[in-house]
Amino acid sequence: MRSFLFLSTIIITFQLSVSAQQFKKGDRVCFVGNSITHNGDFWHNVQLYYNTRYPQLGVEFFNCGISGDVTAGILRRMNDDIFIHNPTWAVIMIGMNDVNRPLYDPKRKDEPGIKEKQQDALVVYKRNLDSIINIFLAKGIKVIMQTPSIYDQTSKMASANMFGANDALKTCAGYIKEFAAKYKLQVVDYWTMLSTLNAQVQQTDSMATLIGQDRVHPGGIGHLLMGWEFLKTIKAPVVVANIVVDQDTKMSQGKSANCVISDLKRDKSTITFTALEKALPFPVREDQQKALELIPFTENLNRDMVQFNYLDPGNYILTIDDVEIGKYFSGELQRGVNLALVPHSPQYQQALKVQALYQKHWRLEGLMRTIRLMEYRHLNVVPGKEKLDNVRNYFDTALAKKPETDGMRKNFVQYMRDKPKEVEIMAELKASLDSLPLLNKTVVHKFMLKKQ
């Protein structure tokens, strides 16, 4: 990534309520799709948001992505890979592979019938997508549609460019919006958002991209942008907590939001009080930071504010649980300090522990998804695939004759290693979040503001 500009052309409207939520207690949410869902980073951001913004809600999220998958693949694995989770919600993003990107290879542009093949792929996609939606709805499963992310056909980077693939994805996005209107479903429009932002960064650097060097798979920046678009669409609340320190405890509580204020004491030089915030700030990873230059993520989604009224002019030191948060002038404190921008605060440090727990969970999730990838995409053609010797023979013979990537071979090696341990890995995965209710439970913090 070479160049970033702050997005000023897209108007963002967020739900200001601190209680609005798309998913409710007891919900089980399956994210269904191809490699971008399989990787999971965009919706892992949503999962982390829900478990910091609603610490005790307990919504469960499930990875139902398979790398390289298409609509037909989703239809084939409905029972064993999706319904097995008993979802209350299905969040669908598919299309990147359905458009059959090799059909847009510049070397094939004059191939007889190529336009018809491109159109046929879109016809199959639309028909299958309609079937997928109807299967979920018939089972009483609520559906959120997501347009595909973009194929970057505009960057001047050196990698091969299947020009026209992104136009086909735009057509897929149009079908999705058509079905959403027909079935009254929500749509998260990644295609438009990423197209707009990608064009913006390329205004100053023609080789820049919000997508990876393969033009298909976003990195941490792109995935945070997608997570943000999802949360924006479902009207996720802005407020983590809004602590307003007024003349006394009662007045402070009345002006604050999503927190409980107690034991407020103030004199000319010192203010002390305790606060129980009902949520934690969202911790933004280092590899996601550049996304904050493109979107107002913090202002519109991650406001953990503390504001002091009736301060005498001067300089102050703010501490929380005896940890120095920072030195501020009275005017700054009266406008409000966003604690979500203070990584060493006790609240942010707690959120980092939640994030670390999820990263362990996602690692185990990744092991299981590789097993499912091999079973649904490759081993379904192997006779006697239940025996690893047969899988090994396939790997050593049939696969060796194919010009597959190193990634494919890596997946086979990982499958041979992990398949015998599948039961243990699954048990570890299920138990990996057992400590979450204690880890993300918010606690009372002691605040002190002292004049210098």
Describe this structure in words.
This protein is of the alpha/beta class. It has two domains: 206 residues, SGNH hydrolase (Rossmann fold); 212 residues, no CATH class. Helices cover 41% and strands 17% of the residues. The protein is built from 16 helices and 13 strands. The strands form three sheets. The protein has a five-stranded parallel sheet, sandwiched between helices. It has a five-stranded antiparallel sheet with strand order 7-8-13-10-11. The protein has a three-stranded mixed sheet with strand order 6-9-12. The longest helix is centred in the last third of the chain and has 33 residues. 38% of the residues are buried. The N terminus is likely disordered.
Distance between the termini: 43 Å
Structural class: alpha/beta
Order of helices and strands: EHHEHHEHEHEHHEHEEHEEEHEHHHHHE
| Count of the separate structural domains | 2
Q: State which percent range the strand residues make up.
A: 15-25%
Instruction: Identify low-pLDDT runs.
Output: 1-19
Anisotropy-based shape = elongated
Number of strands: 13
The helicity comes to 40-55%
Strand line-up across the major sheet: 2-1-3-4-5
> Average pLDDT across residues?
93
Figure out the total of helices.
16
Tell me the Rg in angstroms.
Answer: 25 Å
Largest sheet: 5 strands, parallel
Map the helices and strands.
Elements: E1 28-33, H1 35-39, H2 41-53, E2 60-65, H3 71-76, H4 78-82, E3 89-93, H5 114-138, E4 142-146, H6 165-183, E5 186-188, H7 190-202, H8 220-233, E6 239-245, H9 249-255, E7 259-266, E8 270-277, H10 297-301, E9 303-308, E10 315-320, E11 323-329, H11 330-335, E12 337-338, H12 346-378, H13 388-396, H14 406-418, H15 422-431, H16 436-439, E13 444-451
Parallel strand pairs: 1-2, 1-3, 3-4, 4-5, 6-9
Antiparallel strand pairs: 7-8, 8-13, 9-12, 10-11, 10-13
Helix pairs in contact: 2-8, 2-12, 5-6, 12-14, 12-15
